[in-house]
Amino acid sequence: MLRYIAKRLVFAIPTLFAVSIIAFIIIQLPPGDYLTTLMADWASQGGAVEAGTVAAMRERYGLDQPIYFQYYKWMAGILLHGDFGISFELGKPVTELIWSRLDFSLMLSLLTLCFVWAVAIPIGILSAVRQYSITDYTVTFLAFFFLAVPDFLMALSAMYVMSVYFGQSVGGLFSPQYVDAGWSFGKLLDLANHVWLPVIVIGLGSLAALVRIMRANLLDELSKPYVTTARAKGMSEFELLIRYPVRLALNPLISTLGWILPAVISGEIIVSVVMSLPTTGPLLLRALLAQDMYLAGSLILLISVLTIIGTLISDILLAMTDPRIRLT
Amino acid sequence: MNYQRKLRGLVLSTGLAGIIMQGLIGTAFAQTFNQSPTLQEQVTSGALPDVAARLPEKPFVETMIDGVGTYGGTLRTTILANGDQYNLTRTIANELLVRWDPKWSKVEPSLAESFTASDDATTYTFTLRKGLRWSDGQPITVDDIMFWYEDVFMNPALTPAKSPTFTVAGKPVKVRKVDEQTVEFKFDAPYGLFLQQLAYGQGHLPVIYPKHYLSQFHEKYNKDGIPALLKANPAVSDWVSLFNSKISLTFQPAYWQNLDLPTLNPWILTVPYADGERVAAKRNPFYWKVDSAGNQLPYIDNITWAKLDDPQLMALKMTSGEFDFAFRHINNSTFKSVLFDGQETGNYRFVDVKDLPANDAVILLNLNSNDPVKRKVFQNKDFRIALSKAINRQEIIDLVYVGQGAPAQVAVQPEHELFNEKEATQYTEYDPAAANAELDKLMPNKDGEGFRLDETGKRFTINFMVADVFGLSYPDVMQMVQQYARDVGIDIQIRTTDRARLNTMWSANEQDAYIWNCVGGLSEVYTDPRCYMPFQKADIFFAVRWAEWYANPATGEEPPENIKALMAAYDKVNAAVTDDDRKAKMKEFLSLSAENFLNIGISRPMPKYMMVSKDLKNVVDGIPITGNLWHPAPTLSQWYFDKAR
Q: What is the value of ipTM here, to two decimals?
């Protein structure tokens, strides 16, 4: 097992290298650079774009250098000093910006995961065991409905309903009086009061998908001979269900578990933007729009690293839950 | 008879007594100033000097709309999470040497107590108010202005290119210290528009650089200390980037991230516009304006901006009463019905904003196109007139702008003194027959699909760059224009794009044509005629090479005589010394511009709006706003809540 992990980690290095190059190229693909954004900004304030100023700034930011040299500078900073560069727009080190938002992203992803699993697995089981019943049809209908509705639309409708009919303050994770306050019981309560709406909105889409996966897998398992055998031996229906078919049906869920890590960074960007959540999603979107090169590049690189780590974790978990899988 | 005369005498003498009394009270006011109760404690404890010592000898006395206000309260408003620093500028940062009055009709003293202009419009003298202070209590004097001029503006590392506001005929201004309170701005050539330019937002440069604070980041003053400062801040690499990280030109993000920077604004930042969830500011105890009763402004204690990523959430929070004031991003037709319905629950009212450009949608054909065939056609005025007549403007206004607008060319708005009916409406009548007849003369041959052929026998196609900006639905407008053009045999291809790409394209002069809005609907037409002639390198772009030539005849491409005449006409406006002469020259210029008919306008805009709490008083209704007129910031210090909160 250890050897397997070590091997996987070694293989990850060239992958990461390739990904970093691709990330950098993708960011450079759109025409213009951060200064184009700045120029448009100046123009809208009634300022003229002075060619000399722009040229001097381009030189200062190193944007006049060829792309491979900019990449080299960025990579050298990361590898030698752990320095991911400076965000042009916010004038701060990229690492500082990312870390300040990572905790909320992580919290939101984990809460969503818990919510999705806690709800999807029982419903999936129910839906499979009571196939073609009213419950099954209702669940199936709802699952397809939530799969079909875009999550930003869901976020907007949920916020509208909560705001107009229940008078709740929506958007963000805290009420105004707690935004800058230190951590206290009151703030925690306030967080709990706000966080459930984004968790449900983000969760509903994947919840619907998981219910369908669970149902389909379990149906496969339920018709297998070992179930009939166990039932013939007089095992109780509930114990039987939980001990064998459900455990096997969980496989696909576990194999996608690793994706939760990259989702921490990029997950649900649109929902986060619409609901103004202090996560890394809006940061990435804005960095891409403003062509804030190092910030966007670092976030994409981070997503790639987390994808690789996440997949590894998934593989290990799979090996532990399913003895049929061997790591060689 | 006698009785009547006596009565008149009585009235006259009481009137006179009243004037004398007022004079006496007036002097009395000048000596007793009042301040916000929130500051009293600090004064008592000795942390702050007395209010009279904090104010200049002759503070700016603000005239009120609803009368003298009361202190207190927090103004809750909102800002986009990123790229919206301009919103802060427009709310709390527009304190200048001279300012436009809130009606945008004349330039009046502001930080400068008085100003004079020489008869030849080359030399301007400003006298600062005595006793003005930065927000940290240090005095602001002519030395601060000289610091800006000598060490920032004239320093090639900090200012590689000089702002056109302070440049005439390619030569930067010369600034001279006369005495502690007096400073002289001298230009090489007549610059009659200087005071107007200085009163716009871009005129802030001389008065945002506090020498006592910024000199520590300047190589000239602190050469030995800078390496340590660089080491402490990983985000900067040399003294120039260090300096630029402490204060930034045009209020870019760095300005709003530095809580230590002393300012002259009514409120000072307490939570920066960085990566948090809000921005906040508190009153500046050294603010230099008072009301007529001697109360130091501003009335409102604090301002908070909720940082939101999405305008839809702004509108939702406005209707649920979470904000007292908002206008940017949600004051367009998309949100109006929702915001209208939410007035009761949100406890706000609508106030008119005269955000009136010269036109909301303008077709800008590239007169300097790199393609010689297209260039020839676009430069043909008859072609532009034919295209203009082919467009059914009323239908576009009805369908896209829900009736909000009027068919018009790029022209000054009817409410302005420079308005001219003919210039505003020439060639706006929908007349496809006349357009066809005209085009038949220019491009008689058509291909099998009915599209006209150019002189080389190929189909004449205009590739239109269309970006969806300002909430003005340009893609929808262009879809309709495409259809009207097809009706007269012109092939228009729509290329949707984003603003960044468009910027790159027009910088390189690669576009055939695009659609944009046009500034110059009200008084800014004097200083910013970019839609009326090839002017400077900004976002209105229909003749880049000629504009370059105008800025510097050694570059670009020499325009034809009629364009040169137009440019000369504007130079006369800039050189005019008196208001009357300037106005007359401007009329000549505008009529000449209309005669040249350089671009095709579609719709005259309607006023926009902002939302303010029903509890807020002293809000100017119908305040003018444009890209360079950074209202309503200068009027916000007199806002007050008439209900305690």
A: 0.85
